[in-house]
Amino acid sequence: MRFIGYTIFFILAFSLLSPISFGESTEEGKIYVVATLEIFSTFVEDIGGEKVKTDYIVPQGMDIHSYSLKYEDVKKIEEADFIVLASSEFFSLDSNILEKVEGKEILDFNSYNATLFPLGDMERNIHGYWLYPQNALGIAKAIEKKLEAMDPDHREYYQKNFEKFKENIDRALKSMEILSQEFNLKNKTALLAVPGTYYVVKALGMRIKGSIVKGPNRFLGGKEIERIKEEIKRGEIDVIVNARGLENSRAGEIAKQLSQETGVKVVYIEIFSAENYTSLLLKDSSILSSWSYVEHYGGSESNPTIYFVIMTILAGIIAIAFLEIYICRKELLK
Fold first, then answer.
1. Ordered strands of the 52-58 beta sheet
2. Ranges of H-type helices in the chain
3. Pick from 23, 110, 206, 230: most CB atoms within 10 A?
4. How far apart are the C-alpha atoms of 25 and 49, rounded to whole Å?
5. What DSSP string describes 53-122?
6. How far is the CA of 65 from the CAs of 37, 61, 69, 176, 217, in angstroms?
7. 3-class secondary-structure state, position 196
8. Does residue 326 lie within any of the structural domains?
9. Which tens digits make up the pLDDT trace of 162-213?
10. 239 in helix, strand or coil?
């Protein structure tokens, strides 16, 4: 059954790795959409297809909290027909953008019908909320409705693209459920290095102990770290999850220290990548499912090809599964 599970997962996964094809179109007449974050611009591309031209403000891997608008960013905002914000309530950058725009079509957090979950001292964890599949669907739906209002002649086109986006997420969720069952993830507990990893870990059904980052410039204290060490030794925390690119942040250093002192493994997932959303979700899911097989998975201290090695091994499992199916079928036909 485990072989079959792997097979189903990779058939579904590979079917999601190629982006939706929209055909060809010239730049003329496109709706120019600028998003704060790069991943939001990929949502716009998925729904708008050939009818939109997209751009973004915060470069991949940069922290939205510390980013300041530059001259070229202001020019983008001025030229945009439509602006997509992450949250002007929580992020000062989005608030500054909102103050600078007038007469523009805008989407903001309150348009997404997004669900925020508590994490430690945070009543509502805003960080990375767009990575939760249901929230991603809400963002995509809001984009669809806005594009329909701006361009009613292509209403059916945007609706069709949204349905494709939804189908891709539905398939990704089925694959994630298979992974969760195969690797017993719902009975695993993760300590997060940063709150931005929360929504991917939650989507896989893992238990979440808390976060090393407790709030803006607030981290676990000495006594709390000692308590965490004891919980790790008792087997109450199975893994630490950090974001790729934050290995050397203060939270990342604390995570590595905990790993060195207790042997707990640190896994690094992508939360800043701008690749196709469902591909990102499946990539992170495969990383979280495979952490028990390596020392420090995905981090700067590990072999950067480890992810591809594991994918190759699992691809081999698929080949074995197909061979077993072929042999069984041949025996049944005798």
1. 52-58, 31-37, 82-84, 105-107
2. 2-16, 38-48, 71-79, 92-100, 133-150, 155-182, 198-203, 222-233, 250-262, 277-290, 306-332
3. 206
4. 9
5. EEEEEEPTT--TTT----HHHHHHHHH-SEEE-S-TTT-HHHHHHHHH--S-EEE-GGGTT-----BTTB
6. 12, 12, 11, 30, 11
7. helix
8. no
9. 999 999 999 999 999 998 998 999 999 999 999 999 999 999 999 999 999 9
10. strand
Total domain count for the chain?
2
Within this chain, do residues 140 and 209 fall inside the same structural domain, yes or no? no
Indicate which CATH number applies to the domain containing 265: 3.40.50.1980
Query: Residue 2: inside a domain, yes or no?
Result: no
Give 14-65 pLDDT, tens digit per residue.
Answer: 545 444 444 444 477 899 999 999 999 999 999 999 999 999 999 877 888 8
Is residue 132 one of the residues assigned to a domain? Answer: yes
- With left for phi above 0 and alpha for psi between -120 and 50, is residue 235 left, alpha or beta? left
Tokens 């470069």, residue located: 59
The residue to which tokens 């995570």 are assigned? 255
Query: In whole angstroms, what is the distance from residue 200 CA to residue 204 CA?
Result: 7
Domain that holds residue 228: 177-318
Residue in the block written with tokens 């950067």: 304
Cα distance between residue 159 and residue 280, in whole Å: 23
Q: Which helix (H) or strand (E) holds 191?
A: strand 189-192
Residue 167 sits in the same domain as residue 217: no
